[in-house]
Amino acid sequence: MSDADMQLNREMWDAWADLHYQSEFYGVDAFCRGETTLPAYDVEGVGAVKGTSLLHLQCHFGMDTLSWARLGAEVTGLDFSARAIALARRLAERCGLSAEFVEANVYDAAEILGRSRFSAVVATAGVIAWLPDLKRWGRVVADVLAPGGIFYLREFHPVSYVFGEDSNDPHAPKLRYPYFSTGEAIRLTGTGSYAEPGAPVRTTSCEWAHPLAEVIQALVDAGLRLEFIREYPFTTYRSFPWLEEGTDGNWRWPGNQSPLPLMYALRVRKPVG
Ligand SMILES: C[S@@+](CC[C@H](N)C(=O)[O-])C[C@H]1O[C@@H](n2cnc3c(N)ncnc32)[C@H](O)[C@@H]1O
Predict the structure, then answer these.
(1) pLDDT tens by residue, 259-272
(2) How far is the CA of 130 from the CAs of 94, 222, 241, in angstroms?
(3) Which of 5, 79, 188, 237 to mutate to test the pocket of ligand 1 (most atoms within 8 A of CB)?
């Protein structure tokens, strides 16, 4: 990842952290009253966390990290956005929850936090697209995990990332981006964010496509063992205008059929010895 790409992404996430902390989408006030941000499938997928040391990678301003703390984990949240980390610390204090928040690049996690330290590492919802080198990422995850520890990833499905909106008909899916990785950054410039689409904040970001096989292979090559992988026909927010909201609050392709997956989750474990 070039320093220039990284700088663009960090500037965007610094700007978005402030926007998101105040947004209805994230709902900080309800969170402070005790609401969790963790869907049941993440809680089940990670497994029991009470008393475990849990690292949340790319924690944004810490709502999920602090939700894991409410379930009894000793939590560390890591993110490269200084604004996100400052807000995460503020949120922890406001909610009276104990957590360590560390400002760092994912790729430096093992050097900064130490090796073989965590029994659970978690990353969810819009994380790997910001990382150019998944092999290196896999090795970092394996390094920070204690033997016997698990890594849980829930991500937006790479199949859904190939679609964009048709400018003539925003409700018609259009094939716009490659499924397979070119290794090149996809540069996107726009205003607003997924949580605050109308906000007058203009940013440029650099993203990388990661097919499902690349994600799994990076973790397997780092010595981690796959325990499960699940594909979901729904996603957590209206990532495309053509999605329809279900009674469970999740978003699906229209109609009764779910032609394509919108999210996936997997868990890998570091072998003992
Ligand atoms: C979409 S957010 C993650 C969402 C989070 N799970 C939540 O629900 O709020 C992505 C996060 O990744 C962070 N990030 C992006 N690239 C990073 C990197 N190279 N190292 C550390 N954090 C990074 C951003 O600052 C941002 O907070």
Answers:
(1) 889 999 999 999 99
(2) 29, 20, 23
(3) 79
